[in-house]
UniProtKB/TrEMBL annotation:
PANTHER family: CARBOHYDRATE TRANSPORT ATP-BINDING PROTEIN MG119-RELATED, GUANOSINE IMPORT ATP-BINDING PROTEIN NUPO
Keyword annotations of the record: ATP-binding, Nucleotide-binding
Source organism, top-level taxon: Bacteria
UniProt cross-references to Pfam families, sorted A to Z: ABC_tran (PF00005)
ABC transporter domain span: 3-236, 250-490
PROSITE patterns assigned to the protein according to its UniProt record, in alphabetical order: ABC_TRANSPORTER_2
InterPro entries according to UniProt: AAA+_ATPase, ABC_carbohydrate_import_ATPase, ABC_transporter-like_ATP-bd, P-loop_NTPase
One GO MF term: ATP hydrolysis activity
Name the record gives this protein: ABC transporter
Amino acid sequence: MHIAVENLTKRFGPVCANDRLTVSFAAGQIHGVLGENGAGKSTLMKLLSGYIQPDEGRIVFNDAPRRLRGPGDALAAGVGMVQQEPLDIPAFTVLENLLCAAPPGVFRSRRAAQTALLELAGRLGFPVDPAARLDQLTIGQRQQVEIMRLLLCGAQVLILDEPTTGITAAQARALFAALRQIAAEGRTVLFVSHKLEEVAELCHTVTVLRNGHVVPPGQLPMPQPQEYLLSLMFGESGAAPPIYRPLPAIDAPPVWELRHVTARSGALHLVDLNHRFAAGRIIGLAGLDGSGQQVLLRLLAGQQAPDHGQVLVNGRDLTGAGSIAFRQAGVEYLPADRLHDGMIGALSLADHFALLQRNGLLVDRRRAEELARQAIAEYQIKATPVTPIASLSGGNQQRAMLALIPSTARGILAEQPTRGLDVASARAIWSRLQARRDDGCCIIFSSPDLDEIMEYSDEVIVCFAGRIGPPIPRALLSASRLAELIGGVGFDALVDVVR
Ligand SMILES: Nc1ncnc2c1ncn2[C@@H]1O[C@H](COP(=O)(O)OP(=O)(O)OP(=O)(O)O)[C@@H](O)[C@H]1O
């Protein structure tokens, strides 16, 4: 199906998220949609899939203008959007979810649905068990189920918004192979990303959005030079790499100290951890998902008490004292899931500053708004003090979360600090974190992205199967050696060296 928009405009208050967009997407191809955080990509996709309605302009499917009143309308017209958080029922099985979501008449019987599902899964290379409960599947497997559900419900156009966030590299490869197959069968795929490499690998065309406009107007065939696409996404200056700053020498006691700490999380068992985390350092935790880095961060945030041993913060024993005591001692935690665990989506930045006030029951609203205004200017957040956090783009939410960290913080624990952010936003976040480091903070972060670990860490700690390696100065580590270590190659020898 050919899909196009003409002069499509969507405003949110003063923000024009899509400004008279005109672009079309041909059938049988994978179309990349690139743009920095806040460029307007998700807005366009929500308009095309009926989740929101335009203020002006029109949407055209196969040369016929369509008014979409909701996602059901869009799917009936042949357009389905794969949500980052699939809209499924976790307690139901894969097959039950398919049957619940299918419009009446799509499947003659349960058996017909199962046969269609298995046949499609075979074609796309997705291993699926129709009887598995959704809540027992990984995010990547749920995404596969969601794609198949949309296709079986008749989607001729499949929209994916940042689909590789949160899935493994193997699942991303399987996804790409399936998308190629879907396009080869004549369907249209819209692939939204801010990762250039993904678009270069997968897409036949690319449309770049910047500040709600298509730049240059219309689509570009792929491949295109990377530097050219970066300049389209960010303007001429946005893609400049960060300036390297030498480490300050800080003579201070460790921010955290673990003494003979033992802790459990599910099948993972961390035994006899003895580590000191110095002030004025950025320490990257590298490891395959679930290798112990999350448990270590929780221990250091006071969110999990050790089974044995002691956790000291700035020399004080806070073992088992709980996360509020850790915060009072200057420890801040930035969770990967900003909206579930970090901030309250319905509240604004000013509301968050109001919540942080510690003057008893009285809230100084004017002061909170003033602080929010300062933070917006200093952290270049695209929002007003009263914009709900949930409506900010990912990069702006992350900047807001950083802005809320008090200047008195001594240790910052950041879980995947640039998850879902484009290059320019990621660099902005890192320059802020580096400034905190230069002020004497200890920053410990986890990331599945080895390039990020290599680029920003002063020291790297490798986690492997619940074992936490010694800190390795970044300068002594190569990318290939790090990749080996996270797979366990040479890990024992590394641990033995420091014994
Ligand atoms: N519901 C909303 N209310 C208010 N503003 C919104 C809303 N949705 C989007 N915006 C604003 O519209 C602009 C475009 O946002 P959009 O989410 O489309 O960008 P994006 O390119 O998808 O960004 P990201 O890569 O971070 O997802 C941003 O400034 C955003 O803050």
